Amino acid sequence: MLRLTLLAAIFSADVLSAALPSGLLKKDAPWFRSEEGLAATANILSWQAASGAWPKNQDNSMVAHEGDAAKIQGTFDNKATTDELRYLARAFEATHDDACAKAFLRGLDHILAAQYPNGGFPQFHPPGKGYPRHITFNDDTMVHLLNLLRFAADEAPRGLVDHPRREAARKAFERGVDCIVKCQVVIEGRRTVWCAQHDEKTLAPAGARAFELASLSGCESAGILRLLMSIKNPSPQVTEAVKAGAAWFEQAKVEGLRVEKTDGAIKITEDADAPVLWARFYDLETGRPFFCGRDGVKKDKLSEIDAERRNGYAWYGAWGNAVLKEYASWPQR
Q: Which range is the signal sequence, renumbered to this chain (predicted)?
């Protein structure tokens, strides 16, 4: 166990919670039929790209899109598209509006088309060049997509998803889980966790932006493990993956440091009473946390990288707490 510690997760401008309509999912059926609800639905429908996806980092329920709809750029990043589809499913259940159904199915078809034969998903579809082509676990992108596919297969409102699409979604979910198991990083014969991105062909850990090097991710791996633990009657391969991942989170704890952010600047002090958290990136060879600025050079201490990246990224977080809590009551452990 690493002898460090932290106070709380440090969130950054790059990992800000995107403004999304997910909060509206808690509204009751009468709200979806109200003037306010119908307006929100119309706004969301107006922001759907021709591909079937939605743009990210904005609340697409607030205002209607104006301008050339052909220029809307959809993505799966930062919960875009999956949240809008869940909203439309709720709106359809409450209103039986055919426009909601058509938009949902177009979005679902887009997701199904985006999946690689190996089960992985790019950041958006079609992915173009560069790191968006990688199998994208970053910011829980693939986790959100697989949860949406499982929803479409098993939980979507009656009359929304036809049988062929339900079966396609179920098979796509299964391929995605198989891809996750195959991507789990093995070091010296032992399964560990996952990188935030994996090569779409070789499945090897891959980097993204200059400061996001290939590594073991203390953030994204948490969402992956929680997804795997949510599977009913998991296969022996999934069970093995979860056990190995939980063991990694146990040994990768960061203790002994208190991390605080004041006036936009991160301050780290030694404090034996600080709560346990985890680093965002762990070196693939040494297993130790590392930090990186836009120069792409690994550093052992957060204080050694430039202030812009030091204060503008989620380098530490409590991600493992939920993993270990759920694992403690997981029936297959």
A: 1-18
